[in-house]
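One such given next:

>
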Amino acid sequence: MGFFYNPNIHPYTEYRQRFDALQEYARQQELKIIGDANYDPVEYFHHITFREQKRCLLCYQIRLQKTAQMARSGKFDYFSTTLLVSPFQKHHFIKEAGEIAAEKYGVPFLYRDFRDQYKETVSRSREAGLYRQQYCGCLYSEQERYASPARQAKRNKEDVTP
């Protein structure tokens, strides 16, 4: 069973692309998913505003709390997250947030370090024709991804015509 809850994703078009990719993956794998296309980033911004330095931990907390809550109401044996496959995520924060949510909702958090399978997941998603995001999801990670000094310098160099 898959669960889609990502109030952190910005902008709406990115949210839709990710949700649509999940629906396609679920169709291909005959996987049941819980989640809908409602886009409401307000909770995320309320939670992290003026605490942006801790935004990743806070984001993991919001999402894993909701996942644990869903796992409890659905009587699941445990819950986990696809974030654990990414070498770009902060695993110590994910584990901490998952364990806190597990304790609160009484459903064990299944932590596994799947980063060694990252390249395989990239390859498999490309073969399946699935959309692959270029940044974590939030406004801040979007800015970091596309407005980094190195990327800006490269863009400026590309924008110069001979």
The longest helix spans residues 55-73. The first strand starts at residue 2 and ends at 3.
